[in-house]
Amino acid sequence: MTVTWEELGWERLAPGVGRCRLPGWDCTAGLILGEGTALMVDAGSSLAEGARLRRQAEELTGGRVTHLALTHPHFDHVLGAAAFAGAELYGAVGVDAVLAYERHELRTDAVRNGLAAADADEAVDALVPPGHLVCGEWTLDLGGGRQVLLANVGPGHTAHDLAVLVPGDPEVVFCGDLVEESGEPQAGPDALPSRWPDALDRLLSLGGEDALYVPGHGAVVDAAFVRRQRDELAARFGVS
Length: 240
Prior knowledge:
- Helix content is 30%, strand content 27%.
- By secondary structure, it is α/β, with parallel strands linked by helices.
- The protein is globular, with a radius of gyration of 16 Å.
């Protein structure tokens, strides 16, 4: 019997495209289905969470997750990555260095935000840097006429922000934490506030007025919301 997106607690956004809001930090994970392929967008905050995402994707597809894209290198988006063994792993240029050499900072941030120390240790020890680094744009062919655009639109929320554009009707843009709906966008020590509004302009140019924009946290939004958040960030950080 075929399982539906809704039965698994996922929100279907377009044919073969959906997302779920993970508990704890309200972090978004996305899934795009191709022909015998599946691209997961972000991996959750722990190996256990990543494994749950993988199992749900397998129930939806009848196959395995073949590709994984990380929108940025924060613990709640990347620490489940090792649960997707065998998947082709993508990230913005520079994410590889963060995951290879800044693991202590990732672990510290995860534990400070409430992840159990043992879970953080397990996930950090298992991390593997992406084998595919996106500089500019990368068109990923998932088969069956499904092409997805990976775009290095940062810096902004971090120095390594990757967006995922899924053409279709409607177009869907996975924004990572460049866009947040459930709270004010978080600017940590690795943010580049002066560049963030420009990153949102690039998101808008990718998706256009009629796209669905999927934030890293919160409900799906439209172009008008992204534009308002862009203006708010520009005012907040004094960017013209």
